[in-house]
Every structure is written in structure tokens, then in C-alpha cells.
Amino acid sequence: MCLTFTILQVCEGIPIVRDTDHLFLELPLLKEQLEKYIDEASATGSWSQNAVRITDAWLKEGLRPRCITRDLKWGVPVPHEKYKDKVFYVWFDAPIGYISITACYTPEWEKWWKNPENVELYQFMGKDNVPFHT
């Protein structure tokens, strides 16, 4: 590996290259299921045209495995001994986190979330986060 800047500006140290293992979501294995789901969502109009176009472009380009872990000191720990020093990448666990935080709001959170006839969830995000939340 060749680094252009060999001295770090903040600490004036030298970067160290090291190997590390990570967990990946194997998106290529889900391609057929995703295409079927996208076709249905597109036909029913439940997705915006922009979302459909972005997703179609990704499918045509070819899905790649997406890394879902990081070497950080903070975050949701990976519950496996081999990965005890890793956490889930924030954008991987965030969508469920948005929902689970309601359990901190009220002990009656299940009455709302486990009542599918009366629940519709809409989540809004910037286009830069679409790959991670999709």
C-alpha cells in the first residue's frame, strides 16, 4: 500500500497498515429476491421513482458485499467471540435503532409497534445514506 501523506497532521504519527477481518452482508446472494421485491414495489407505486431508479442502477451495476462492521471503541458490539473487538457499522444498525428507541419513551411501546393495522412507518434520509439504509 502506498500512502501519499505519510505523516498524520493531528498527532504527527506515521500511519500503520494492519489486516483486520470484517463481517459483510452478502448482497449478491439476495439479487433475485431483491429484484422481485423492487418489481412489486415499483408496480404498486409504494416507492418513489427516484428510489426505483437508484435501485435499478445498483442492480444493473451488480451488487457487491457490503461491510457491516468497524474497528471502533463505541457502538453496538458484535455478539460473537471472534469479533469481540468490533462493532456494527452505525448505518447497518440505525434503521432498527430508530424504532427501538421508542422503548425508552414508554413501557407501553409494544402496544403501538405490535399493532400492524394501525401502524405505518415512514423514514426519511439523505441520498448519501441510501446505500446503507436500503
UniProtKB/TrEMBL annotation:
One of its GO terms (biological process) is methionyl-tRNA aminoacylation. The keyword Nucleotide-binding applies. It comes from Aegilops tauschii subsp. strangulata (Goatgrass). InterPro entries: Met-tRNA_ligase_1 (IPR023458), Methionyl/Leucyl_tRNA_Synth (IPR015413), Rossmann-like_a/b/a_fold (IPR014729). Residues 9-134 form the Methionyl/Leucyl tRNA synthetase domain. Keywords: Aminoacyl-tRNA synthetase, ATP-binding, Ligase, Nucleotide-binding, Protein biosynthesis. This is Methionyl/Leucyl tRNA synthetase domain-containing protein. The keyword Cell wall biogenesis/degradation does not apply. One of its GO terms (molecular function) is methionine-tRNA ligase activity. The lineage of its organism: Eukaryota, Viridiplantae, Streptophyta, Embryophyta, Tracheophyta. It comes from the Eukaryota.
